[in-house]
């Protein structure tokens, strides 16, 4: 039998909160802009190069009332980025409803592997080979961000680009530990295929969270 807390988590009334912080968006279309990040625990996509593996197990992150999360967010920024883990493992409708009531812009960073829930001003889709996005996420994505770990990932990137909507902005981003190897490959690829743009984890170069 589920506990009362677990039932609230399942409904999106509470969420396993790993961390929340105010910083500069380091990646993709909104890089360089101030944003408040809400990192939700829980992910079963299992990328071997993931740099936040501590987010995978939701049980180690405290179930937190979404009212508290929304109130904290509203004190810092108009732009709220919900990330993970994989936030779409949980129902995002209750949290995004609270954030929109406060007049905030809602962004999500997701692998797209789960049903799309929530109200979003911006959807960053970062698909993973182990668990591909749902058709609805492909069509709703504002930007596609494919992580390049090796040469085979360029083929995967093109397969993903073929499925998003026509207005979706396309990014190739080097996996951080392989950046010295893959950045020259990405530069050459984008120059040969200018529908793509380069995304860098600029927050790591700036040494900020």
TrEMBL record:
Keywords: 4Fe-4S, Iron, Iron-sulfur, Lyase, Magnesium, Metal-binding, Queuosine biosynthesis, S-adenosyl-L-methionine. It catalyses: 6-carboxy-5,6,7,8-tetrahydropterin + H(+) = 7-carboxy-7-carbaguanine + NH4(+). Its EC number is 4.3.99.3. Binds 1 S-adenosyl-L-methionine per subunit. Binds 1 [4Fe-4S] cluster. The cluster is coordinated with 3 cysteines and an exchangeable S-adenosyl-L-methionine. Pathway: Purine metabolism; 7-cyano-7-deazaguanine biosynthesis. Substrate binds at residues 24-26, 39, 83, 209. This is 7-carboxy-7-deazaguanine synthase. The lineage of its organism: Bacteria, Pseudomonadati, Bacteroidota, Flavobacteriia, Flavobacteriales.
């Amino acid at each position: 039998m589920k506990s009362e807390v677990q039932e609230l988590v399942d409904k999106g009334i509470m969420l396993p909160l790993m961390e929340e912080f105010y910083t500069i968006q380091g990646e993709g279309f909104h890089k360089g802009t101030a944003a408040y990040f809400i990192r939700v625990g829980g992910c079963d996509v299992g990328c071997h190069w993931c740099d936040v593996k501590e987010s995978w197990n939701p049980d180690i992150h405290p179930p937190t009332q979404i009212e508290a999360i929304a109130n904290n967010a509203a004190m810092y920024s108009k732009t709220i980025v919900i990330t993970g883990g994989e936030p779409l493992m949980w129902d995002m409708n209750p949290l995004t409803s609270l954030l929109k009531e406060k007049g905030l812009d809602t962004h999500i960073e997701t692998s797209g592997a789960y049903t799309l829930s929530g109200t979003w001003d911006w959807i960053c889709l970062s698909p993973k080979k182990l668990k591909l996005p749902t058709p609805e996420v492909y069509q709703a994505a504002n930007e596609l961000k494919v992580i390049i770990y090796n040469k085979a990932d360029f083929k995967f990137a093109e397969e993903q680009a073929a499925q998003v909507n026509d207005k979706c902005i396309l990014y190739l981003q080097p996996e951080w530990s392989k950046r010295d190897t893959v950045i020259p490959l990405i530069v050459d690829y984008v120059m040969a295929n200018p529908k793509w743009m380069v995304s860098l984890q600029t927050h790591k170069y700036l040494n900020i969270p």
